Amino acid sequence: MSPVHARAVTAVAPAKINLHLGVGDLRADGYHDLLTVYRAVDLWEEVTVALAEPGGDGVRGETGARGRDSGSDDDDDEITVTVSGPGAGQVPADRTNLAARAVELLRSEAGSDARIAIHIRKGVPVAGGMAGGSADAAAALVATDRLLGLGLGRAALEERAARLGSDVPFCVRGGTALGTGRGEELATLLHARVEQHVVVALADGGLSTPVVFAELDRLRAERTDLPRAGGTESLVQALAGQDPAVVADLLVNDMEPAALSLMPALRRTLRAGEEAGALHGMVSGSGPTCLFFCGDREHAIRVAAEISETGVAREVRITHGPVGGARIIDGPGAGPGAAPGSGLRSGPDHPTGK
Ligand SMILES: C[C@@](CO)(OP(=O)(O)O)[C@H](O)COP(=O)(O)OP(=O)(O)OC[C@H]1O[C@@H](n2ccc(N)nc2=O)[C@H](O)[C@@H]1O
Ligand SMILES: Nc1ncnc2c1ncn2[C@@H]1O[C@H](COP(=O)(O)OP(=O)(O)O)[C@@H](O)[C@H]1O
């Protein structure tokens, strides 16, 4: 147990993109085996966990609907959730929230009866295939570990993260990593240093991850010739080089045909990015966000402006990666050395754009 205790701790965790997303067949447990190359990018979720005053929220001066644990009286709520930022209304503000599940996991493990108020500031598109909910869970784990003075190491936090969702361990770790199993088994790609500048085109509405996986199974049953991503060796090698164009040629996403089948309008978005001169365009994870990989930041600014003009996207953002994983930004011990993934960070990245 660490001697450090606090009344409130704030942590951030990054969005992910999949540079390679190979999906195997449906397993008996309802998941699919994955072979994926994850990369953390500079879009962040920010989560504050605070010891709540009896009868109060614990987080002061924030707006947003107060979550309520259905089936219990407000005054009895031990964990409350508020959410602000773009898309906040689509995020559950009750105990099904992944951040609340993360807090509850560590709280019960610690045998604590502390009342904890969670506030989430969204910076990652909701239901966009960029792991916003998983980043909430990752940031909540790191923050609660500090709030309750548990002193769990990074490996222990990633083990808890895997219980919350397949993408959560990567949001704790950040950087660039190979993911296997259902995506929760990670091997950091330490040499994957090539920086990427990416245009992120947000769609109207979201896509449900399990629905997209099911659509892929359906398409594969119908069309046995549907291409499947191969190995990751060439991509891993290219990521250790210096040329984003070489990397761009090797990007692949097995889920893209399923996302396009469910949301055919995304074809127009992909075409717009291609016509704007991106090195490569593809659907992000299960979609519907589309990613356009560019040579450098200036190129990304030009591509983003052109896509914006076509009106195919609800919103266009520019980001870059790799960046580090979940880390504490406010509370005791905050700073570059405080994050579980600090040894893996690629540079002095700080969350921006909020
Ligand atoms: C597809 C990916 C690619 O990185 O991300 P998104 O694009 O949605 O962000 C991930 O595999 C999403 O991971 P995550 O969102 O954590 O999924 P989970 O909560 O673990 O699972 C939700 C549901 O998705 C399906 N699922 C998930 C992971 C996996 N390897 N196989 C699956 O079939 C299952 O139906 C599962 O019940
Ligand atoms: N913190 C959260 N806890 C629980 N569910 C969330 C959270 N954030 C988003 N969601 C919900 O989970 C679903 C997936 O959201 P998200 O993680 O943002 O996207 P994706 O899985 O496509 O990366 C959405 O229906 C959204 O309402």
TrEMBL record:
Cite the entry's keywords alphabetically.
ATP-binding, Isoprene biosynthesis, Kinase, Nucleotide-binding, Transferase
Which residues does the Swiss-Prot or TrEMBL record annotate as the active site?
A: K16, D167
Which residue ranges does the record assign to the GHMP kinase N-terminal domain? 97-175
What positions does the domain GHMP kinase C-terminal occupy?
236-312
**Its EC number(s):** 2.7.1.148
Q: Does the keyword Kinase apply?
A: yes
Q: Which SUPFAM superfamilies match?
A: GHMP Kinase, C-terminal domain (SSF55060), Ribosomal protein S5 domain 2-like (SSF54211)
- Biological or metabolic pathway of the protein: Isoprenoid biosynthesis; isopentenyl diphosphate biosynthesis via DXP pathway; isopentenyl diphosphate from 1-deoxy-D-xylulose 5-phosphate: step 3/6
Q: Which HAMAP family match?
A: IspE
The entry's protein name is 4-diphosphocytidyl-2-C-methyl-D-erythritol kinase
